[in-house]
């Protein structure tokens, strides 16, 4: 495995984290030592959050999450903090390391009841939520459920251990009611639920702490889920060499729609150019040519005239990436054109109308994608299946049209299954965009501001991905870098942005990435 494994932004599912734990214990570090370190880091975070003399209320559950809470209580008490411990279950139910941590705590404690909680909340400056972490498999009920409501009403800040109780760490889904934390301390690596909504919103600031699990364990675990951060794709980020010319930087072809919908594809084309594609050409209906031409400067425009217009537009060997869909129309002509584009075997982004038009015949789309992926490969050559060349960029509505049987409430799994079913890289857009490849890799994006929820913003994203594909970046990485640059551009353009602001805001993002790589 690569050096710098510690910089690869892996996310571990709770199961993979359990495996990391097992491997570490097997290699000689007892579970009780891991728990001692975990509880110690929680205590350190709590100390930063309460002023001296503040009271800390610690809610402990029946499993190892509760065990971390007992350790934190003992250490905070030792550091001179005033703590009280409320236990959700009968102490006789505690097992293993958690039972041992409870024994070692040697502090007074009470059962978690409405009375004890209300008394504790009356004086607490901070609540530590150590009720449930990775082991929660069903909705909170009984006193744990009541505690969520009482804490919300009291507005006392919550520090969550590993995950806010009530959250599914693998999916970010709320199993029912969930604790709302201002800060979450998690161990070794983040979990998907820290990035996927609504989980991310419940976590507050997520702090990852080292508890002595060595990166060697990752070789065995081979995680396939990542946070979408530059280290994931920086090695293939395109930077022109000194002797570059515009053709060596790629040539993107963006298909434009009719006169009344020219804006969407123009935004895409501009973004493709900003992503660094050396040339961008728009292929447009003849009747709309003058409108396109009047609004474009660095981008070339050519009319799609005559029966074989599409084939001629695609015949230039120097074309290295295509985009079809934004503003293209949902009629049957669109699906015919998409199939023709894919038949050329070029790296292609399908967005918006190019997705919707296959609602009634998704198999036709998936066959065309498979033909695109295999085009250019000799039969029996190389790996099977072939690497994906196509990127689909659906928002949730478009996703449901193409994949009606998949459950979009579990966005990570749904995107993975969609990638596998279609043979394309799937970008399931939203506040927590998921990028999934047919080979099982998936990245979750975390830098997009809500200001990106504006008309035309998705067209810019499709153009960025096309621009990276045109520079020969592999499809998964092109999609991931497009999504990340889109998020950064959104933050730079900032509050009040409109889609037209985004392509220009991409320039400092690219300059920053290049500077970081050089430095
Ligand atoms: N992995 C690591 O490297 C490290 C992990 N560490 C820590 O361990 C934590 C994971 O511990 P865990 O596996 O014991 O699970 P946890 O979340 O405490 O709960 C399980 C208990 O809850 C119960 N239960 C479940 N749902 C319920 C419900 N709705 N209502 C009521 N009960 C419910 C379930 O029992 P059941 O009733 O299902 O038999 C079981 O007793 C992890 O988050 C981290 O904090 C650290 O110490 C450092 C190293
Ligand atoms: N709440 C949000 N926070 C961050 N990004 C968002 C949010 N809502 C939408 N986005 C992003 O904005 C873009 C919207 O794309 P899309 O829905 O296709 O819009 P349009 O079709 O108008 O261009 C996507 O990249 C999506 O990830
Ligand atoms: K917790």
UniProtKB/TrEMBL annotation:
It catalyses: (6R)-NADHX = (6S)-NADHX; (6R)-NADPHX = (6S)-NADPHX; (6S)-NADHX + ADP = AMP + phosphate + NADH + H(+); (6S)-NADPHX + ADP = AMP + phosphate + NADPH + H(+). Binds 1 potassium ion per subunit. (6S)-NADPHX binds at residues 64-68, 133-139, 162, 264, 327, 395, 459. Residues 229-513 form the YjeF C-terminal domain. Its cofactor is Mg(2+); K(+). CDD domains: YXKO-related. Keywords: ATP-binding, Isomerase, Kinase, Lyase, Metal-binding, Multifunctional enzyme, NAD, NADP, Nucleotide-binding, Potassium, Transferase. The keyword Ribosomal protein does not apply. Belongs to the NnrE/AIBP family. In the N-terminal section; belongs to the NnrE/AIBP family. Homotetramer. Bifunctional enzyme that catalyzes the epimerization of the S- and R-forms of NAD(P)HX and the dehydration of the S-form of NAD(P)HX at the expense of ADP, which is converted to AMP. This allows the repair of both epimers of NAD(P)HX, a damaged form of NAD(P)H that is a result of enzymatic or heat-dependent hydration. This is Bifunctional NAD(P)H-hydrate repair enzyme. It comes from Roseibium hamelinense. The lineage of its organism: Bacteria, Pseudomonadati, Pseudomonadota, Alphaproteobacteria, Hyphomicrobiales. The gene is nnrD.
């Amino acid at each position: 495995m690569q050096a710098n494994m510690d910089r690869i932004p892996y996310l571990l599912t709770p199961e993979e984290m359990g495996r990391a734990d097992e491997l570490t214990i097997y290699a000689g570090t007892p579970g009780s030592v891991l728990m001692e370190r975990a509880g110690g880091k929680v205590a350190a975070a709590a100390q930063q959050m309460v002023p001296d003399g503040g009271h800390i209320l610690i809610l402990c559950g029946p499993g190892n999450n509760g065990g971390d809470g007992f350790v934190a209580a003992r250490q905070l008490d030792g550091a001179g903090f005033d703590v009280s411990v409320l236990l959700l279950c009968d102490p006789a139910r505690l097992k293993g390391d958690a039972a041992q941590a409870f024994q070692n705590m040697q502090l007074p404690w009470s059962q978690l009841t409405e009375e004890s909680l209300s008394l504790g909340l009356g004086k607490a400056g901070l609540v530590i939520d150590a009720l449930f972490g990775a082991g929660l498999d069903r909705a909170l009920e009984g006193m744990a459920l009541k505690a969520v409501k009482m804490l919300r009403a009291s507005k006392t800040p919550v520090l969550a251990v590993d995950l806010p109780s009530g959250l599914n760490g693998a999916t970010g889904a709320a199993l029912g009611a969930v604790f709302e934390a201002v800060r979450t301390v998690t161990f070794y690596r983040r979990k998907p639920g820290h990035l996927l909504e609504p989980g991310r919103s419940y976590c507050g600031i997520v702090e990852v702490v080292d508890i002595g699990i060595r990166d060697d364990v990752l070789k065995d675990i081979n995680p396939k889920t990542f946070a979408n951060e530059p280290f994931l794709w920086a090695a293939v980020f395109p930077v022109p060499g000194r002797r570059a010319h515009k053709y060596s930087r790629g040539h993107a072809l963006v298909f434009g729609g009719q006169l009344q919908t020219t804006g969407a594809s123009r935004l895409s084309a501009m973004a493709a150019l900003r992503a660094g594609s050396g040339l961008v050409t728009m292929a447009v209906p003849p009747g709309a040519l003058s409108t396109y031409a009047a609004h474009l400067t660095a981008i070339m425009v050519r009319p799609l005239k005559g029966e074989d217009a599409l084939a001629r537009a695609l015949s230039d060997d120097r074309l290295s990436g295509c985009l079809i869909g934004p503003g293209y129309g949902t009629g049957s002509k669109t699906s015919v054109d998409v199939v023709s584009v894919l038949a050329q075997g070029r790296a292609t982004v399908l967005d918006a109308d190019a997705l919707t038009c296959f609602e009634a015949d998704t198999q036709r789309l998936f066959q065309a994608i498979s033909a695109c992926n295999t085009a250019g490969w000799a039969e029996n050559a190389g790996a099977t299946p072939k690497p994906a060349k196509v990127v689909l960029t659906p928002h949730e509505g478009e996703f449901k049209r193409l994949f009606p049987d998949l459950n979009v409430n579990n966005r990570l799994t749904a995107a993975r299954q969609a990638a596998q079913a279609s043979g394309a890289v799937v970008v399931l857009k939203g506040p927590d965009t998921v990028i999934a490849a047919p080979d099982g890799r998936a990245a979750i994006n975390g830098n997009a501001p809500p200001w990106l929820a504006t008309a035309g913003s998705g067209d810019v994203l499709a153009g960025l991905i096309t621009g990276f594909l045109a520079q020969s970046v592999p499809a998964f990485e092109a999609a991931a870098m497009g999504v990340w640059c889109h998020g950064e551009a959104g933050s730079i353009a900032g509050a009040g942005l409109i889609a037209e602001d985004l392509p220009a805001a991409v320039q400092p993002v690219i300059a920053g990435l290049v500077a970081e790589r050089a430095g």
